[in-house]
User: Fold these one by one.
Assistant:
Number 1:
Amino acid sequence: MLVWAVLVAVVAFGYYATRQPHTFMQIRMTDIAASIAVLDRGGPPLLASKVPYGPHVPASELSPVGITDDQGIYVVLPLLGHLTGERDPSVLMQWFFAGCFALLIFVLPLIVFELFESLAVAAVAPLSVFVGFDSAPVDLYWIMAWCMLLCLPGLLLAYRWWHDGLRRRATALLVALLVAAGFATSIRVDAGLPVLIGGLGIVLFAGTDRWRHPRSWSLRLSRAALARPLAAVLLVIAYLSLSSFALTAIRDYRNSVIHQPSFGSTWPTQHPFWHNAYIGLGYRPNRYGIAWSDAVAADVVERVHPGTQYLSPLYETTLRHAYLHLLRHDPGFVLGTLWTKARVLLADALRRFWLAPALLALGLLIARRRREAAVAAAVTVPALVIGASAPILTLPTSAYAMGWLGAWGALWLLGIGWTLAEGGSWIRQRRGRRIVTDLPLRPALLVAGIAVLSGVVAVTVRPAPPPSAVDFYEQGQSALAARSSLARPAPARWRFAGSLPQGWRRAATGVTLERDDGQTAEAGLHVTTQTAPDAAQLTSPALTLPPGRYELVGEARILVGGMALRVSDARTGALLASSRYWAGEGDFADEAIAASFVTARARKVRIALANWTPFPNASAWVLWRLAIERTGGGPPPPGAYYRPRADALIAPAAVGGSTLHDWIFANGVPRGWSASGSPVLSNAAPGLRLVTTAPVSAYQLQSDTLTLLPGRYTAEVAGRVAAGGLELGVLDVKRNAWIVTRHFWHGQQFDGRAMTATVTLPRATAVQLILSNWAPRPAASTWIVDRVSFVRLP
């Protein structure tokens, strides 16, 4: 069995370690890379430095690593990188994942063999890990499933040993399991807490019925009486050894090395609770302007207590009050949202492990296994409750639900063990004769009925997924304008300093307005819209403008949903200008919203701010100022055509996902690409300079055909448009039709941001990436193309 365990562990490590690294949160990657740089220069763990680290670097150049997060991963991966010389955090995570799961697959056959005394069951056990857990999920959340798959069968074995009188052996096993559980908790909060609860239950109650007969308790202290509480204390210490004591010691060591005893003490060292719970209420469309966005929670706190430190105790207290206020005044909304997420979790678990309830029932029906099956169910209950709490309060994604799914997977594994071990014994006793007719009818029907019911529930209980507007917004968004445009002469300016300016009014009932003192030194106006799509929410007074070209510009931020900015003729209602912005677009702190228009005669105009959403959902904005500015006479500037039609640039770090293809243009057109129409190419280190042909929408560069599986993908072009415009398109080769096109021009502030196009493919599709000339009339454009990447999104 030991040889088999070693063999499958080696195979598992090779399988996991050679797979494509999965998505890793950018802020974690940054902190881990910064910690490795400090370790390489002889510094302590959990420390980042803005300059090359040295003994005399001032404290102002140093910062703690892993604040507001569970810090175990910020110790393990930097140490692994320092020892191996690997600097890519995603590769380090892949190695770490492969090592942990190889350890699990090594230990699991040994535990299962001890439980069921069957080589066949033990040989199958590691293979079952691949069912439902065949690859690493996004980021570090897999540690919760790893902990459950390792420790729940181990708890059952410890119970057997304790019940059989092998209490020293059982205690040693429990201590080892609690150290592993504490290690998991250091990486993801409370990942190992169910193991601590189960272990304490075993050492305090296994093999005794005193809790049923209180009179049997004795006050006399004896060695036997002290064994259980002492074992319980030992388990608590084992659990806290890595999750608390070790991390505290590492932080104290770091502070002593840099001679700053209170360094980082003002920041939390674990995940916040109420922050995630509050924004988790935005799982589905709602009328409160809540969405799964850190900015939403931060803005709530800023409106109540301006200047509150992010994730501080006061920050968490404020969000707790906001959450409970909603629960008291609209319990249907809060409880309905939680129930919807619970249904998603249950359906996902039964879809993966629909036989687990039936196999558990089978274990309870087998006389020799009944007690063990009951204990397995009992120690799994805390794992199910704690594992479900996080995704129900936040998002019911498979990443957050790894603890929940790991508990189901452990039950499924144990159920397979009971079935194979007892079923094989029963068949051998009958030597193949009358096997079917000797089956106990009622138990067989009960188990079959539970299995069918689980399958039916898995299919019917899952609610419809919440609608997604990402593709809708990305296809309709307008480009942000330069903030400098706010300084031009203006016939009219309005400030939203905590209230509506004179003459402005609500255009619909249900629009809520609050003073917002956060984000900038100047007070703004927080607006929560109606849920009606495209309905005007705020309107301006009518303003008479002489003939000329104008631009409506403003300082605002979209927190949830979207905003449509409209300028109309006040008398006829004819639309003169329109632009649209949404929460996932650009940097509202450094750029402005804008809409350009031209009037050939004196005209009265009115501005309207509308809720831009594809389905009933409230949007949330913060407004600071709006202005109508005159942009001069003569022929319209290029920006008059390009600006309202251009798409927003995206910071590369915001794209995330796994890179499938990466083409470098430093040495000309790379392999896999070809030039069309004879553009003029020249070197422009670190990229390629391309002067397009004159025809409008003419192809200039195109990739070979790429066959993609169903999912979401982003094409990302790093570089800039030096003159004219660029059209980035993703073409469905079979249909010869555009899936998506995006447009960019030379007036945008590139500053390292990328030109992107995102597609959602419902089926396997052959596509091409095509870069075309974008211009209002035949004219050449000039681009600098550094690289093109194609990324699969999580």
Number 2:
Amino acid sequence: MKLRNKILIAISVVWVIFLGLTYTISKLFLIQSFIKLEQQHTDQDLSRVDQALDQNDYSLYTFTSDWAHWDDLYSYMQGKMPQFIPGNLNMTAYQNSTINMMTFWTLKGELRAGSAIDTDKGELIPYPLGIEKYIYPGSLLLDRKDVKNEIRGYILLPSGIMMISANSITNGDKTLPPLGAMITGRYLSPKIIQKIEDETKLHLILIPANKIATDSPFTKIFQMISDNKTGHTSENIDSQTLHGYTVIRDINNKPIAMFQLTAPRSIYQTGVQAVRYYLFAFIVLGVAFSILMMWLLRALIVRRLEKLNQDVAEISATNALSRRVDASGKDELSTVSAEINKMLTIIEATQGRLEQRVEERTQELKQTNIKLEEEIKERKSVEQELIIHKEHLIRLAHYDSLTGLPNRVQFNEMLNKAINHAQRNHKKLAILFIDLDRFKNINDAFGHTVGDQVLKEISKRFASILRGGDLLARLGGDEFIVLLQDITHAKLVSSTAEKLIQACAKPVVVNNHEFFFTTSIGICIFPDDGTSLEDLQSNADMAMYRAKRSGGGVFQYFTQEMNLEAHEHVKLEAALRKAITNQEFLLHYQPKLALVEGIMTGVEALIRWESPELGMISPAKFIPLAEETGLILQIGEWALREACRACKAWQDAGYRPISVAVNLSPKQFRHQDIAGLVRSVLDETKLNPQWLELEITETAVMDNVSMGTDKLKDIQSMGIKIAMDDFGTGYTSINYLKQFPISVLKIDQSFVKGIPQSKDDIAITSGVIALAHSLGMKVVAEGVENAEQLQFLADHECDMVQGYYLSRPLTEPKLVEQLRAESEETTETTV
């Protein structure tokens, strides 16, 4: 293809791409700009509608405000001018002011006088149905004790939307105390709507609540503008017409209706026409510019390039290196021609030296062959060095890089040899499994560099204690293992373990920081406790964990009871997993009594496990196992769902609503999207969030205060109450306590148990009650077991109590019987 054709195609492709991009950009930005301008204009029109509504409501307010502050009306409310009503309130006054309701109320909510009027027919009518939802003692309209706090707005009645105005009844100077409230109403009638249309020059349609409820599109729009801060929205019906909507709210700020505005899309049509004119002009100019560019390129560049191409082709075909191309001119193309001539000169000069260079290269290859032979000898030397490095790597694989101690691989090899030696010679040896207590805190607080220095120091101390034939190894992290050979007496093992514990107990100083910690040691004896490497290490590890569970800082010998306990642990875990599948769990409910009201206001859901094989298993036995294995996540989710289901079932059966409290385990709180789980369960069971209470422990939140606070706030935002369980047994600071969105504090039964004998428990309990009340929280006391405890808690204004003195945990049928008895007792009392 010729160059000029390529240039023509390139210009055409670029122009088409550019035209497409221009069109796309104009559609994305220019048209969108006109649409945005159109939406802003619609929003301004809707704002004018809002202002017109407010002006009509304000006109009612200003008109009736003069009545409310009339001295004659004030005298009538004092009982001094009985002729005020017939003399001033008549049908002519109502019709002239288009007032559909005028009432006068005392501060106690008693109606002194008033009327409802049909101004079109000129007759009195009954008070509108539904007015009692807005006018009742203590309501927003009747609470007119403050003269400055006047109320005006709209209310929704079955007969229509009414503008309402509530004014305090006082004297003309507003100096005397209010005697009541004057409440006046005017329907948002078609005449008023026509007046608003005349004022705003807009076409409006009032869409009441009953029409919105039966029309799905209107329902969606109404929900959207109700949640929108501006209360406005608009939608395009087609390219010619749009609808705008604005919400009407009642005096309680509840959406009750909306106006629909219909307007032409003149701004959008103007934008579309402008874009079309712009693109047409752009295409015409682009075609003219392309023709001009093609002519200039042909005249100035393409013709000369074709001549240059012809000259180069002829030189190449004839191999005439002495010939030169035309390099006349002073532009880039003449420079290229000159460079081609220089290249031809260089090629011509180089051709004669090429054969000589080939000969020279042959000699160089011979020299290279000699060097290759030397490199082969050098490679053999390198291979010898690699063998040496391999031996070094083998050593690294058997020793810990940080402490220089043998690692797990080396220790296992040495232990196998020691076992074989002990078997042949009928000797004993001991395995000491060592784990530093709470060493992770050092790494978390000061970093691994400081932690490594501590490990080096501890390893040196351990090594200094052992005999020459003993073996110390580091298994990884903060775990060490010791092999004591040729054990003649058990006292030697205990003595060595004591020395290791004492060496660890001494402070370790790194970078001017002193670190204090303890160590737990598990001891296993060969051949009494095992004859294989695996058994010895496993049993020593088992004994170490027993030492840790004892509080750390001690050593523990392996016993067969530990092995039995481990097997029992495995058996119980298998049964627990099976219990989840077979749904062997059930909930008992312990009532909570409100001391002031003297009634049951809630229950705490307590999980129970009734195994067909093992019988009733205590929560104290299987809950820690569920926490350890992670099964608590499934069990806790089941308990939450079952408690919500039961609470909703009691309400559906017609019993008095009570709240249900569900305990959240620390693992549930840390590892699950607990807020999402609770929201899903509430949606599934249809339980109102106000009847659910979640109990958490102090430790669950204090592990990560920031994350815990965020999770609690997410839960509280759903309307769920949060209780802090076992308060006082953890380490919650008062500063953190006031940050948590806690509604209820539960006093642990360990404090209630000592009342009234223990002065300390009395002081702690009364202090917690006072603290909770000062922070706006309710207080629940657990473990109430006698009348003296109940009386003490009542005297100190504790809100709720629970315990065996009041009721043991009940099965769901037993609790339903109690709810039924309470309901029947209430019915008999009412009769």
Number 3:
Amino acid sequence: MFAKHGDLIIRVWPGVLVAWIGVLIVASVLAPALDTVAETEEFRFLPPSSPSHQAEDLFRDAFPNKLVPSRVVIVVRRPEQPEGLQDRDLEWIDDGVYDNDPDRDFELTERLIKIAESEGGLAEVADPKAIVPVAAEDAKKGDVRRSSISAIRTWRDHTLGRLLRSNDGRATLVLVELTTDFLDSRNQPTIKQIEDLLFNDIGFKKHIPPGLELSLSGEATVGRDMQTAARNSAKATEHLTIFLVVILLALIYQAPLLALIPLITVFVAVRLTMSLLILMAARGWVTLFTGVESYVTVLLYGAGVDYCLFLIARYKEELDSGATFDEGVMNSVAKVGAAIAASAGTVICGIGMMMFAEFGKFRQAGFAISFGLVIVLLASLTFTPALLRLAGRWAFWPQIRTERGNSASGWLPTVTLASRLSDVRWLQQFWDGIGKLLLERPMTIWLASLGLMLPFAIVGVIFYTHLSYGLLSDLPTSSPSVQGTKAVQDHFPAGATGPVTILLQNPAIDFSDDTGIEVISDLTTALNRRKRELQLADIRSVSHPFGGEKSFDENDDSTATPIAKALRRKETRRRSIDHYVCRHGQNTDHVTRMELTAELDPFSRDSIKQLSRMQAEIRAMLPADVSKSTEILVTGSTASIRDLKSVTDRDQIRIDCLVVLSVFAILVVLLRHFQICAYLIATVLFSYLVALGATYTAYWLIDPQNFAGLDWKVPMFLFTILIAVGEDYNIFLMTRIEEEQKEYGKVQGVIHALQKTGRIISSCGIIMAGTFCSLAAGSLRGMCQLGFALAFGVLLDTFVVRPILVPAYLVLLHTGRFGRLGKYLGAEEDPSQAGGTAGDDPSVAV
């Protein structure tokens, strides 16, 4: 098959080049920008059946237009002054005058209103006391455009105002509530306007009371910073990837044109892949997420350059044996085409198993990377041979070759003394030495290698689930949201910027009458008694609308007359019911909500555990007859993070099993040795645990106090990619072993194959590791951790697993060191045992 393919390429190579370039140009011109089609809302990737999605659906049905998916939080403080905020500071924030205000241009709230007006007006006025911008004229014109800002809440807000001032009196918060998810790209213009107002508007800054410190926090600010970091990381990753590949190829080939051929091939494949993916996303065929280009770029550059290196290495061998340039291209495609296709198929199937994940991002990454690998495989087997044929003798410039050249030099054109020393003296001697050691002491080397890696594997097993789901921990400390969150936590509970909403639904209880309110009052009182134990800062409900431990019946400490107090309590009760109880639809009066402020960071792993505990405690606190018929749902950032953890934990198990089974099946079909294939799978599984443990250890040593665990995405991507790529290299080695064993016997064939593939596989591994290292070029810590783990795992596989653990096992197997057990492990009688030691055979030199 590949012999005919190679012959076809030689006959139509100009057309192949024109076709690839033409398709690339057309696709690039038609494809819009990725940002216009990418899905940005993180928790939209969760399955629709997730409890947090169900809670949001119930909330929207029961309390239309009152769901606050995210906020921008402005922190106003005087941290160093004992007297704290002054009256003039609070008046500058919100003077309570909304019509004909002479200080409109200099008051923070009024300027925030102007930002909403510039975007079409507030999206939703949540209650009668909320600030209403002047947008009547726009409404008359039929302008339905609205800002993503739904409300602006300050210390004057009648429901949240008390909570927006710190106990130490030195800080207050201004909440800019949005209608969009915290990662929605539509937030960015709004946040940019707020940021420019606070920090760049010179005229406005002149009227800020001297000594006030301002900073930004809130989920929406975190999301904006994450998207910015993701875009910057993607650009930095691509640039560093190209730079590293250029440097490594130049060092390997010492021939500019020959180094450019793999680079051009992969560049075309990556650009074409992204253009086609964007076109498919624009038509609704696939879904993409922001940052997918980083994964596609790194994997395609690493794998694509590997495939090109194997093809070019064989091309060089054919030319060294006396083939013409046409024959060299045809023979190289014929001899390694099947191995490249099989290796690529293994990686494609392995990573493609991610498409069976529940979490949308994993599914999208699995499809996008697998699709890209198909493109880069096709490019390696068509575009690269055509480029080699186009380059001809000039591919090896400045050491120009002639037709029918014959050299035993192997990897580099060995015209100069430097190239001979580079090629033979240390590289060949290194692999000769490895071969001799494996023949002399295979068991010692095998056990020593396992022993050195075992401690890291143990760490990987122990801390396998010790993961971080904190979004802030993924951002650099210089990010505005990180600094703003620190400012919040200096004066407020950590959960102030991400409150938790508890929904209680019971068709048998009317939460607007005395009986229903009493149930909620008892529950709120019970929670207040255990507030410290449950790490809660405040609890608000229909019975306790202002928070604290007093209900609305007990909260009036004024000196008003009893009649006035009664009227005030009646009005407070009415407004509290309207706010906390569903007042329309099929759930009228049968759904109520409680708003909780936690002491913990809403994105931390501890907050996830505490939320589950609190939900269980709430059910236990309800009367037995009420508890059985009440559905308790939770919405908020922590609830979504909890669902994310639950879904990805299930995905990890499912995808791990599917990857192992699919890769194992491919190995059995290709190699036809069940036991040896099982050992190959075991080695890459072991190397995965070692890489995971080494990464955990490294990042713990960097910052023991603040290290909360590896990012939650690391284990999934590390496992899938490392297993697939590890077996990719094993396939290259094993196919060459089978070829060499036909001539040199079972044992010597292993050593010959190791020495002939040693330099090329090592070069591929170094380039692959280099491309993975480029993930660390960005500022997202999760990507840095993944880059380190992948680079470490590939180098471990390249220089330990593939050249030591696999050959040592095969030598032990074929020399009968396993005794009778060897028959069950796949050992076959070696009829030849021909040849001396590998290092003495001149034919070993490539």
Number 4:
Amino acid sequence: MLRPPTTPARTAVRPTHDGLNSALSRWLPNCYYAPLGSVTERDEPTGSERSPQHRSGSVHSSVYAATALDVPLESKLHAPEPRAGWVERPALVQRLVDAHAKLVLVDAPAGYGKTTLVAQWRCDAAEGRPFAWVTLDPDDNDPVSLWSHVAHALHRARPEFCVQPILEALRAQPPDVGGAVLPALVNELNTLPGPVVLVLDDYHRVKERSCHAHVEYLLSHLPPTARLVLTTRADPPLPLARLRSTGDMVELRMSELRFTPAEAAALVVRTAGIRLADPDLADLVGRTEGWPAGVYLAALSLRGHPSPGTFVRQFSGDSRYIADLLIEEVLSRQPAHIRHFLARTAILGEFSAPLSDAVLGSTDAAEIIGTLERENLFVVPVDENRGWYRYHRLFAQLLRSQLTRAEPGIIPTLHQRASGWHQEAGSPLEAISHAIAGGDVARAVDLIAGLWSAYADAGRMGTVRGWLQALGDDQVAAHPLAAHCAAWAAALAGDRSSLERWLPVIEAGDYPGPLPDGMASLQSSAAMLRGVFGFEGLGVMRKWAQLAVELENDPASPWYALARTGLGFNLYLSGELAAAAAALEEAVVCDPPILLIRMLALSCLGLVAVGQGRLLRAEELTRAASDLTGLDDVSETPQSAFTHLAAGALNAARDRPSEARGELERALRLRRRVPGVSPWPTLEGLLQLAEVLLGLGDRAAADLLDEAQELLASLPDGAEAQLARLKRLGQELAGRSGGPALEPLTEREVTVLRLLRGTLSLREIGQELHLSPNTIKTHTRLIYRKLGVSTRRQAVEQGHRAGIC
């Protein structure tokens, strides 16, 4: 199968091109490795960030090498180390050392030294707790990236912290972060023998609402020995008022982080080698309002200035003036070939000599990079081998703005060259990012189409959706291959409305030859989407599944097996067991390389074998499917429910109802995690479990049958066999109830029963009676129990016979 890669993945962030009229806050120093400054403030990444493996420039053998959870991105887990140029802030550090609240919030605009302050706290002699550090970036809007890096950081800080339970939960498809990942993480925190401080640096880069909900969950379950630290430029959507009122939060904001005159003086001395006169220093602090980045920019321009006092008196916080200063005082002093190199490589985010030569069409990049590093010209090495570099964030923004103004037409070409280099180097994530930034939609779509299935297999569809969102709906609609990827992403996520939107685009499209993911054609893709998921009913599903079988005729393709599995399962649902077995045997014999498809084929064939009474064969197939479920951590995916369906049916056939019940209940739990996925496995589980519960005398079967009836009511086409099973089971349940109701209905229950005669849904009945849906469901269950029925229709009929309605 296409397996998740074994090296870390990073999606390149699309570079932006800010003009000189941008807000002042955009022109900020970043002294994570500032040559002379003291303000440590990471700005937004401007390009791809790369793993150490990629930084060597070597070509990766697999395009799927970037999705593993086991190897974190090292640069994200390292806090800034102490530097001689830092301005010490002992009072603020002591306040943090003494903090006992569960949340420490360092919240201020960019350039206020938030990261530096927390790094100083970490290194303070009075602080003995280990720190787990994660530097966030836009990729951490994907919960898989966020929580895998958090787990690795905690393990680095506390080796006793076991990451495996968290990583195993993250491998589920989709990961159940709230129900599995975070409880496992909290459990591990509770077992630690000592305290730990978890720092999420640059938390403002997280925009995904679910990630904020996950952090809120972590805060509410944080053990007393743990602290959570957030550095951010904006208030996070967390219950800050409640945390503040209960004393569970210590916060440092802009007013606390402003430089005092003494701190500003220290920064100017260390950066410019100048001691300003007291009036000039007070003037500088007043003009900048203590904004550390503003002081830093002023200090940079003060180096070698003949009249510091005059400069301070003329200094303004206007962003245009700051940008002009940097242009005049830094860029204008560089030779033409250096300025040319700086401007054109600034779009890369991170760069190496081979990449730079490919983008610029040059041969001297290594020499120029050596010069930049030696002269501390805002270049920062990002790996220990000094093979990859980035520019100071502020400097990179300035360079890109200059390039946008001077040569806007060259920017797409530069991105396209970078994309081509990354594609050849085996780093598809960066290739996709630069292709999108360069407007090379065709390349981006081809790359996405070749990667989406592996990312789906690894539970990383959030990354795929991010690429598609970056392309935009108009481009997806204009490129059938992109619509193909979007449709499969929607189907796997249970998003039927999006699937219905993209299917016509696929069906009307044309693409020569097999698709990059191996499917035979766009027509085959549409046929499998309709024939495997069955969102339009079993009748329509059968027609499209048969077409998919005709189109996918290469036994070496994994889609050959999937097409036959879809048809075989449809035939099984229709009661055509011999035909189902024939189709599924073809799927199994071809040994599909994708593990999930093989597991589906074996499980479905196991269901058929049970239906045929071939229990030994069913046991063999079910065991083989279960063995696959234990591989590659797919046991928690919705698809693995098929294995439990087959095992449940086999146990029921062998008169082992307790074992059957356990397997079937697990199958339903797995399917219900993604309620919008194909309804037919869920329906099969409902009917099988209801039959088992009836045999055990468990009245919970009534709820299952009612759920099955509601599902079938929306998809009746071709479901005659299921309707017949539902009717038979309902009659059996009614026969076991001993006749009409043994208890009288309450007045409210009578009212609900009369409304059940109409077409209103339970939710609409609740709205009619001004009651919640849960209350109506409770009344309905009581009505069923009292009348001895299992479905809505039976309740109405029994009520009519009893003269109630």
